[in-house]
Amino acid sequence: MKTDYHVGLYGAPSAPRAFARKLQRYRTGKGTLRFPIDQLIPVELVRQIVKRKVKDNSAKSKKE
Question: What pTM does this model have?
Fold first, then answer.
């Protein structure tokens, strides 16, 4: 039986759509990205996702 350990990144609802091609090899869910614990975390991809999230949040706060 294989245990599904992972490192999760939460609160990134726009990330799966915006980065769909880059995320094909990882499990995703609603606002969740899962990286296998036995592999290096794709730091540059995470950096891009965080920048996108900051941009989304900034745009959202300007509308309010």
Answer: 0.72
